[in-house]
Design a protein that fits this description.
With about 230 residues, the protein is an alpha/beta fold. It has helices at about 15-25, 70-75, 85-90, 95-110, 120-125, 130-140, 145-150, 170-185, 200-205, 220-230, and strands at about 1-5, 30-35, 50-55, 80-85, 110-115, 155, 190, 210-215. The chain has an eight-stranded parallel β-barrel. Strand 1, helix 1 and strand 2 form a beta-alpha-beta unit.
C-alpha cells in the first residue's frame, strides 16, 4: 500500500521540523512518500519516508528562473514526483503536453511520476468522466514505451471531491480505477479526494485501490496514524 503525503504550500521550516518529528512516531509497513514544498526537500531526514516532490519543471537545467529540474530533484534524493495535480491544472493552467514533458524528464532521471487525473463535476454529471480520464492518460503518456508506462503511478482525484469533503461512491471510484487499470495493466493506482480517517473503512472495501494521495490529512499526523491503522484492521 502506497501513501503519498502532499503537504501542498503549507508549513514554515520550524513547523516542518516539528511535523517530521510527529510523523516519525507513526509505525507502519506501508510505503510513505513525503512530498513537501520544494524548499523543504533537503530537510527530510526520516528513514521511514521516501522523498517526493510536488512538481518539476518541463525543462532541464538552464535559464529558467524559478524552475526546479528533474536532475536537481534527483540530486536531492527525490524518488517520486507528483505531476498534473488538479490545482496546477487549474491555477497554473498546466496542460497535458507540459505534463507529458515532465513525465519523460522524470523517467530519464529514474524518478517515479505520480500522474494525477480526474474529472470536473460537470463531466461527472454529463457522464463524460471515462472520456476525460482516457484523454488525459493518452496525452500525459504520449510517446512512452510500454516499459516506461509500467514505471508510472496514476492517482485518480475527482476534482469535485478535492478539499470539499465530498467523496464519490465506492462504485464510482471502482469504475474509474478499473478503467485506468484496463488501459494500463500492472500499473498502481492511488485514490485522492477527501480521503480521511472517517471514510477509510468504507474506501478500503475497494480492493483495486493500491494506495492514497492525501492532502489535508497529510498535515495531521495523529489523524494520519488513525487512517493507517484503520487500513490494516
Amino acid at each position: 500500500m502506497i501513501i503519498a503525503l502532499n503537504n501542498k504550500c503549507n508549513l514554515t521550516k520550524e513547523k516542518f521540523i516539528e511535523y517530521q518529528e510527529e510523523l516519525q512516531k507513526i509505525k507502519t509497513d506501508m510505503t510513505l512518500i513525503l512530498c513537501p514544498t520544494n524548499v523543504f526537500i533537503g530537510e527530510i531526514n526520516s528513514p521511514t519516508m521516501e522523498v517526493g516532490a510536488q512538481n518539476v519543471s518541463c525543462t532541464e537545467c538552464g535559464a529558467y528562473t524559478g524552475e526546479v529540474s528533474s536532475s536537481q530533484l534527483k540530486s536531492m534524493g527525490v524518488k517520486y514526483c507528483i505531476v498534473g495535480h488538479s490545482e496546477r491544472r487549474k491555477y497554473q493552467h498546466e496542460k497535458d503536453d507540459e505534463i507529458n514533458k515532465k513525465v519523460k524528464l522524470l523517467l530519464n532521471q529514474e524518478i517515479t511520476p505520480i500522474i494525477c487525473v480526474g474529472e470536473e463535476k460537470e463531466d461527472r454529471e454529463n457522464n463524460n468522466q471515462n472520456k476525460v480520464i482516457i484523454k488525459e492518460l493518452e496525452e500525459d503518456l504520449k510517446e512512452l514505451t510500454e516499459e516506461e508506462k509500467k514505471k508510472v503511478i496514476i492517482a485518480y482525484e475527482p476534482i469535485w471531491a478535492i478539499g470539499t469533503g465530498l467523496t464519490p461512491s465506492n462504485n464510482e471510484i471502482e469504475e474509474i480505477i478499473n478503467l485506468i487499470k484496463h488501459y494500463l495493466p500492472n500499473t498502481k493506482v492511488l485514490y485522492g479526494g477527501s480521503a480521511n480517517e472517517n471514510n477509510i473503512e468504507e474506501l478500503k472495501e475497494i480492493s483495486s485501490i493500491d494506495g492514497y494521495l492525501l492532502g489535508g490529512l497529510s498535515l495531521k499526523p495523529e489523524k494520519l496514524d488513525i487512517f493507517l491503522k484503520k487500513i490494516k484492521n
